[in-house]
Each structure stands twice: as C-alpha cells, then as structure tokens.
Design a protein that fits this description.
about 220 residues, DNA-binding
C-alpha cells in the first residue's frame, strides 16, 4: 500500500500555495501600477507588464485573465491605501487641529511614497472613471460624508470656525496629490531632477498652515 499522507500535510501545502499565489499577484500588481501610470490604460499591454514582471504573457494571464482584471486590482490596492489615510478624520472626540495635521501628513506621505499609484488613480478620474467609477462612488462617497459629518460637529461645538467642509477636503486632496501627479513639473521649476524630502516637508507645512487658517475661529488676519 502507498504511504498515507498525514492529515495536516495537505492543508499546509494548500495554504502555502495560496500564500505564494497572493504574493505573486501582489508583485505583478506592483509592476503594473508603474506601467499603467506611464502609459495609461489604453497604452498598456499585458505583454509589456509580463515582460517587466519577468513572466510569460500566458503565465501572467493565469493570475489575471484580462488587462481590466489587473487594472481593477491595481486601483483596488490604490484605493485601499488612500481610504485608510482618510480614516484619520473620523474621530470627532480628538482635537481637530491634530486630526487635520495627521490627515495632511498621511496624504503627503502617500504622494511621496506612492507617486505611481496616485497617478494611475488620477488618470482614471480625469478620464471620467469609465472603468472604476462605481467603486469610487461606493467607497469614497460614504467615507467623505462621514468626514463631513465630523467637521459639522466640530463647527457646532465651536471647536473650529465655520467652513465648507466638502470643499476644504477637496482642496486638501488637490494640494497633497499634486506633489505626486505634478512632481516632475515642480522639480523642473525648482531646477532639479526630482523633489527632495525637504520639498515634501516644506509643502506639508505650508498646506497645514493654510488649512489651520481656514478653520480658525478668528479671522485669518488676526492669527498670531
């Protein structure tokens, strides 16, 4: 009779295969995000991503059968990270100034650490979100409304001055994301190849000061 395989052995092998697949899928998505950012969805091919990932086209398509499936995975990863940073506003019991500073810091860190991810997301949105609009609506809108509700409670309690919370958040998004989406232009204007850590720190501090002035309970001209 053939030797029996221990009952614990098969589940262990299955778990290892699942983990290895998850790891490889994540690595493929990490390569794909840069190519999608550089070439756009229409200009990107599965063959180009496979070559950059060191895989055959057939092997890559075993994990992602279509370009849209891989694009969806890339944007899912981007949105997961982006929304995780939005969560920092959803604590109304904390000091508003501390929460907003942490929020801006998180957004700037995303721009510094994940510029390709930011650009892929921006390109999708600028084109009208034809392939990812429903996910943005379903996931971003509820969290944005939650953050706006926190702002309104802060205003009602007199903890910050009256401000249009929706547009303030839009402006924070625009200011912080520009350090990813337009970093090449900024570096060109500054006369260097790329932005430095100090550039990001200086930008962050400037954005923080502007936002703090916007939510001040006294007119900005009377701030110390």
């Amino acid at each position: 009779m053939p030797p029996k395989i221990g009952l614990a052995a098969a589940p262990t092998r299955i778990k290892r295969r699942v983990l290895n697949r998850d790891k490889l899928e994540a690595e493929i998505a990490e390569v794909a995000v840069r190519i999608f950012a550089e070439c756009g969805y229409e200009g990107t091919s599965i063959a180009a991503i496979a070559e950059a990932a060191g895989l055959s086209k057939q092997n890559l398509m075993y994990y992602y059968p279509t370009k849209q499936a891989l694009y969806q995975r890339v944007l899912d990863d981007v949105l997961d990270d982006w929304l995780a940073r939005m969560e920092s506003l959803a604590h109304e019991e904390q000091d508003p100034h501390d929460m907003l500073r942490a929020y801006i810091q998180a957004k700037m860190r995303f721009s510094r650490e994940q510029p390709w991810a930011s650009r892929v997301y921006a390109m999708e949105v600028i084109s009208g979100a034809p392939l990812y609009g429903q996910q943005i609506h379903d996931r971003v809108v509820p969290l944005l409304r939650k953050d706006i509700d926190v702002f309104e409670k802060w205003i009602a309690a007199g903890r910050i001055g009256p401000v249009n919370a929706t547009h303030l958040i839009f402006m924070v998004w625009a200011m912080t994301q520009s350090y990813a989406d337009f970093s090449a232009q900024m570096a060109l204007v500054l006369g260097r190849k790329q932005l430095t850590r100090k550039d990001y720190d200086d930008g962050e501090e400037t954005i923080v000061r502007m936002v703090m002035a916007a939510i001040a309970c006294t007119p900005p001209g009377n701030l110390p």
